[in-house]
Write a sequence for this structure.
């Protein structure tokens, strides 16, 4: 009997690369797609090289916004599991490129669902959702929490969530959405503020005159560790009772606190180096975003255990040694 096959759409990003590594360790054959491959960049899979899996994962060229190519992909490889992690993932960029963002999320979701319906695909599909669908959360968000997205990215993820739910209930497709709150690792794109803080803080440790410019440092987020989250993806996707879930820590932390911990780890006072720049404030910014971790703990015994201080230590250590 051959290996079980998993298809990972968006295999080159933080989550896709970490998920691919985890699947390979479980002796799955991993087929991956990446927008970077489609754009024919020279060194598209840096995260695979960092993890040492560049020779173990099969990355195929597929335009996943094209229905026929997605259909061919499913028919050819017959994956037991599909993980859709592909998207233009920057909330900020979604305001500048709303069409690209919505297409990369909604069209791909619909393609996968319709292909599954037409082919009578009986494997399991996991879709990466986002806490951005909720907008501001005055209390810990559950899956039933009112959705009020405030960005094109959030709106696209909300549409994807609703499509997945519709196809599961209407067509009995084995599909679920994991609504993901913030989760970090050294593989996180440098466009995210957490990576900017780590990088700039290290520059401050070398140059006492260097300044880190940030926008609203009073926003609150729910930060977890990405390796734990990709374990959650798989637990959800292999559950006998497929249902949408929230993956989070349940702990909210101000960005200012994140900054202060980073600088403290480097024996610096953040107030000596951080400049709050009004031009960096985002219109419609989500002030508070955190989730309720108990439903998925009760249903599937998954929980986020790595605390924020440990996450920051891991990020700093990697950056210093890289």
């Amino acid at each position: 009997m051959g290996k079980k096959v998993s298809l990972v759409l968006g295999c080159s990003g933080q989550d896709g690369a970490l998920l691919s590594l985890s699947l390979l360790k479980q002796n799955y054959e991993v087929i991956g797609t990446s927008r970077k491959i489609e754009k024919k960049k020279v060194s598209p899979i840096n995260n695979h090289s960092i993890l040492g899996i560049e020779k173990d994962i099969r990355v195929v060229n597929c335009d996943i916004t094209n229905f026929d190519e997605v259909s061919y992909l499913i028919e050819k490889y017959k994956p037991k599991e599909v993980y859709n992690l592909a998207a233009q993932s920057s909330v900020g960029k979604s305001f500048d490129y709303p069409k690209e963002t919505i297409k990369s999320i909604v069209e791909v979701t619909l393609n996968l669902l319709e292909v599954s319906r037409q082919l009578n695909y009986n494997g399991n599909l996991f879709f990466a959702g986002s806490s951005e669908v909720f907008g501001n959360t005055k209390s810990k968000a559950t899956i039933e929490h009112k959705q009020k997205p405030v960005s094109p990215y959030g709106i696209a993820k909300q549409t994807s969530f609703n499509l997945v739910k519709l196809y599961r209930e209407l067509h009995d497709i084995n599909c679920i959405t994991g609504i993901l709150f913030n989760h970090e690792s050294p593989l996180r794109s440098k466009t995210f503020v957490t990576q900017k803080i780590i990088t700039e803080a290290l520059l401050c440790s070398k140059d006492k005159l260097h300044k880190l410019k940030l926008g609203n440092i009073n926003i609150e987020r729910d930060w977890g560790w990405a390796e734990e989250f990709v374990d959650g993806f798989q637990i959800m996707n292999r559950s006998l009772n497929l249902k949408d879930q929230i993956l989070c820590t349940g702990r909210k932390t101000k960005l200012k606190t994140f900054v202060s911990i980073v600088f403290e780890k480097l024996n610096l006072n953040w107030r000596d180096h951080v400049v709050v720049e009004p031009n960096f404030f985002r219109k419609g910014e989500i002030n508070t975003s955190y989730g309720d971790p108990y439903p998925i703990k009760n249903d599937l015994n998954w929980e986020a255990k790595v605390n924020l201080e440990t996450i920051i230590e891991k990020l700093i250590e990697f950056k210093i040694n890289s």
